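Hello Y.,

Per our agreement to keep a running log of every chain we model this quarter, I'm adding this entry. I've kept the format consistent with earlier entries: sequence first, then predicted structure.
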Amino acid sequence: MEKIVALSKRRGFIFPSSEIYGGVGSTYDFGHYGVLLKGNVRGEWWRAMLSERDDIVALDSAILQHPRVWEASGHLTGFTDPMVDCRTCGRRFRADQLGELQCGRKPSKHPGEYEECSLTDARDFNLMFETTIGPVKESGATAYLRPETAQGIFINFKNVLQFSRKKPPFGIAQVGKSFRNEITPGNFIFRTREFEQMEMEFFVPPHDAERWFEYWLAERMRWYVELGIRPDHLRLRAHDPEELSHYSSATSDVEYLFPSTDSVGGARWSELEGIANRGDFDLTQHARHSGEKLDYFDQGSGERYVPHVIEPAAGADRATLAFLVDAYDEEVVAREGAGEGERRTVLRLHPRLAPVKVAVLPLVNRDAQPELAREVWRALRALVQAEYDDGGAIGRRYRRQDEIGTPYCVTIDHQSLDDRTVTVRDRDTLVQERLPIEGLPSELAARVAREWRSPKLGGES
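Predicted structure for the entry above:
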């Protein structure tokens, strides 16, 4: 993970937030390439939810909602983690995760020995961020930053039902920021207090809930594998009965084998996405607290019922991190343009996720090569995310694009000026081929869009 963190900062993916002031714990800013990468992750999620099917509609609900929303959902009283303090080092920990963490132990007076942790009794800590609506803090002005996007979907169920002309089974999908005052955030952007969720609530007739739950388990696993995650780094783990939320009849986590930055080290299976059968809990609760009917009348059968809900809930930041980790590779290759061997770092991102699809590089900054290179770049950027790069030796520019994850580099050289052909270099195979400028944008756009399999699995780009 340390290599991922270093590359992310060096190449403009992710920076520590407020770094010039010493930073704020577990908060991060996304740089240019991070914005593009996470935007592509979101785009692929929207594609799977909206473009490839017709039974899901989109929503973007407010971050600030009526405080009674969180009363109805149970967050005001039940959204807590058990917290303990260490009297030795002053750090705070989640009481249910002590086995995965290490205290900041201080050396004792005796060499090789340490003072052991002295922990307080566990107490409940509410994870919601509290704020005030309006200029004056007074009774009734208390509000909360939403800890999840799901409740914004449930309270809009009636609105969506009326305008969309959908009937169960159908879904409402949303991407947006959520906020949780985590006791022990960490492992880079895996657990932060401000994060982005990609959640979909799929409303189904009660008797169909189990079938749709199994369907979404398979569908969400397929999505990650299709976008390049190695299957042996991905697993589906069903929650034990004692682990289930009180409203859930079944929940499974899509887990990824994340490397770790903590002092324990190593890799561990951690949640990437949760898929839950939430039953009718949410709609029933909001109906009870709001006084509004949140049910559905099936005119075909004459039946009125409260739909049950299947919820695939993913993190955009965690998914971005998983794609970064899984794509990271190092290999020794012959230096391009010379015979020596060198180690290169490369992000083997799925071309649809790559921040930049094509980089255009003039071999030298003279002899009209930059002018032709910019002509090619302008033609390419109309179809794909393209970048012009003329700084430094060609080998160094190739390595920079490898670390960004750019699938194709187009090099303009002396021959290009004579016959209007260019060299196209493949990121994964390092194969270079000569192609005419005419038709190049459509050719490379087609290559980016076609099926792709990670070279780590022996596939070809």
